[in-house]
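Give me the 3D structure for ADP,ATP carrier protein.
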Amino acid sequence: MQLNIFLIIFTLLIIKPVVNAQFVSVIGIDQLPLVFVLVAVFAMVVSTIYSKALSTNSLRKVTSATLYVSVFCLLGFGLLLHFGIATNITLYALYIGVAIFGVLATSQFWIMANLVFDAREAKRLFSFIGAGPIVGGVAGGYVASVVASYIEGTNLLFLGAFLLCFCIPLNRVIWKKHIQQLTPIQSKKRFSDFGDHPLWLIRKSKHLTYLALVIGLSVLISKLVEFQFSSIASAQFTDPDELTSFFGFWFSTFNVVSLLIQLFLTRKIVGTYGVGTSLFALPGGVLLGSLILLFSPMLWAAIFTKLWEVSVKQSINKSATELLSLPIPAAIKSQTKSFIDVFVDLAATGIAGLFLMFLVNGLDLSVRWVSVLTIVIVAIWVWVAIKVRHEYVNSFKLKLTQADKEAKKALPDFNNVSVLEGLKRALASGSENQILYVLDKVREIPDKRMFDNVVELLGHSSARIREKALACLYFLEQTVEQPQLEQLLHDVDMEVRYKAFAQLLRQTKQQRLTIINEYLQHSDPKVSGAALVGLSEDARNNPELQKLLKIEGRIQDKLSFLKLAETEEDRFLYQVMVLRAIGNANILALYNEIETALYHENKRITKEAIKAAGLTMSPYFVPKIIAFLEFKDTRPVAQEALLFYGEGIIKELQTYAQEETSRLELIWRLPEVLEKIDSANAVKALFGFLDTPDVALRLEALRSINAIQRDFPHLKIKKEDIVERVMEESNLYKNMLGALYQERQLLPNEISEEIQAARTNLVNILERRLDGTLERIFRLIGLRYPPEDVITAYNGIRSVNEHVRLNSVEFLDNLLEPALKKTLIPIAEGALFESISSETIQGLQVKIPDERVYFSMLLEGRDPKLKMAVFRLIEALGNKSYASLVKPLIQSKNEKVRKEAEKVYAALLA
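Predicted structure for ADP,ATP carrier protein (910 residues):
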């Protein structure tokens, strides 16, 4: 690939000084704007023919045909100039032909490069391959400069045709060995299924539109700079051969500088600052040069401006613009990129010619006024570069979020013409989930205009909706007709009954005690139970009302009826009403009833007891409720119970986490509770968990911080120390990766089945822990960057689809700041454990630790499973020197770890 582009540019730089010098000397500098316009006119014809050829032939055939035609044209033009036949017409045709060849041949080469290399390979190799054309430019220009002193310049056209012949077999080898071996979508380049003209495809895509504008504006500026350079140079050198030698020397010198930039700066700049930022290197230097030319139109200023434009354009800017086309689908890219590179390039040349004809030929202004036009275009260029960077990042993001986008199509959109009308329509005809969603919104922002719609839901078939609608009535502060509430007191759902009586109490002003007594003594246990629970809630913070209504005595009465209940269901209903009433009224003397029920054999009663314990909001019940977070079936109700405490639970959970007797399995569940609390103190508590040595707790805390950031965006999260924490987790990742690599290297060499089984177990656990560390890293990044972008990238990196992973890495490469990028991109590239190799380890600069070192590291952590795996391997190895590593763990507070340490230590000593 590098040799191919070297020969193309070598040929171009041999013939270009000849063409420029001959044209300026024979035709005149004043005709240069006209030939720019003619280049654009003929470009339209060529682009149409080229596009039609691509629609009926493969890209490989069209590329080969371009080389054959170019060779024959060079030979023909060389003969015409050598024999002096129609010299002026030949020079016009030659200038136009060389201009078209320059952009068409290089465009075809970079399309091949995009097919051969994926996004990550391109990022690494384009800077290396890009050195080929620069070296070719250096060699070609110097050859032209030297040879022009000995032979007539026009004879160099024959040398160019000879060199170009070598590109034909080289091109064939690249296609056969490196493109046809790829997937069908990469190798098959027929476009019969794409009927749209490339111009229409570009118009439909913002990315392609901005890419075309960036390339077009860079060409436009290039031609303006070229005109100033050629104009000032032609005034200094009047002899054609001297001018050829001058152009040849400086074109090569420009390429020498470009080569140095390509070798030492391009990869570093593009890799560190990203594709988008790299685009600003070219306009910055051109702006400076144009300002100098505006005030001092001297040869040195023209050389400086042209030097910057050529050297940066062929190095940093070329790599950046080629990378910009990577997210474009292969089929569309092949159809449009040549069109952009050829048509847009040459059309911009024509526009430059028109501008110059207007300024120089029409208004008869000096070359310094061209600088004013250049400065204006540079400003437009910068604006477009900002836009194309945004679209470039979005293109990768779109590929990664396509599935999420499809899933979200099913979600209701309440932001249409009228939010209020949209909410009302959803309540009237939405699905259960949509209605529940809207009712939550009504609670957050109560609007009395929604009252009638909410009341209608009291007769809905879904008990959850009826319950939520009753809860909304409290926030709407409106009155419901009493018969309707009395009917709901007989509802089949227990929660609906409780909520109905609570609403009845809230809106009853007269004969309140009469109604209370009437329902408390109701013959139906469902109704009397609802009355007792509703009343206890209403009297919670009113000791006088509790005494007046004898709440505790009434609860005791209900307790006495438990054994007399006729059916199991009635007994359950009595039990629930008693527990709920005790919790609501917070009656300390009856706590034992809740505590006994917590361990009832009936799981339904246990869950109700957990709720009741939470309703008391007593610190006494906190550790007892936390214990139920361990089990999947009781975890949701335990979380709900802890949230009853409100913000006060935060301090209790922190205290529990710090107690030495608390079990790790339960501490890991605490962040999931904190993430549901809309409080800055909850965020502070979660960040406190990040400072613990327990990696599992850190991961859970990060997941919860991300959830808080998503659900409560108004809560401010301090991001100053995020980078430092990312570095810490990255170092841990590398250390564990080194341990994993070492274990994998040792595994195949083990003869003992016991040792092999122990190593396999440790490898499996290390893989899972690495996965958790990687997630922690990305969750930390999600606190500094848009979390939806980061999590999408993380999911892409963990994908089994290689192309998705590559797109994810490229997306991150453009998202992250340099400090994070340098650390995380290598980690992201080697994220799949199956691909860990010595190259991956070297790329991450991971030091392979001695077995004793990483055993010590793993045993010092707070991960009991890793410790147990290391114990098992140490015991299997039987190495007595490891006894000193095991001995400190005999004092561990974790019972399992302590007993295993005692066992292994004794075995080693024996």
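Residues 719-849 form one domain. Let me know if you want a second pass.
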